[in-house]
């Protein structure tokens, strides 16, 4: 047993898989720093219910917001980083919207890469980075 509480960063923690990951980690004794974008009420309820959670609103489509949250987290140590936030929007190929393409790439690929690179020195020995993806976003 270690003398410190384990910590994790979970992106997209307000619902679905992210919520389940957050709940499991807290049950396992972790303190979780979680991000949400549009699920403020859900994130606040998780924080209130689980207690060992701190939440941050961030839209990973916006590179400046991604870098700002990384700046806030730069002094924290983590035993786990779970890049779970993702997005998917159906596209009509005949009316293809490149902004949706750019946003999807930013959220699903660039943000997890930035998080992993910028926080790599903040991972405790034997810590892990887990990247969650969906076949819907490929």
Describe what you observe in this structure.
- There is one protein chain.
- The chain is of the alpha/beta class and 138 residues long.
- The protein has one domain (7-137): NAD(P)-binding Rossmann-like Domain (Rossmann fold), CATH 3.40.50.720.
- Helices cover 40% and strands 22% of the residues.
- It is built from 4 helices and 5 strands.
- It has helices spanning 16-27, 40-50, 63-73, 98-118, and strands at residues 7-10, 31-36, 53-57, 78-83, 123-131.
- A 5-stranded parallel beta sheet has the order 3-2-1-4-5, sandwiched between helices.
- Strand 1 (7-10), helix 1 (16-27) and strand 2 form a beta-alpha-beta unit.
- Helix 3 (63-73) runs parallel beside helix 4.
- The radius of gyration is 15 Å and the shape is globular.
- Belongs to the short-chain dehydrogenases/reductases (SDR) family.
- This is Beta-ketoacyl-ACP reductase.
- Pfam families: adh_short.
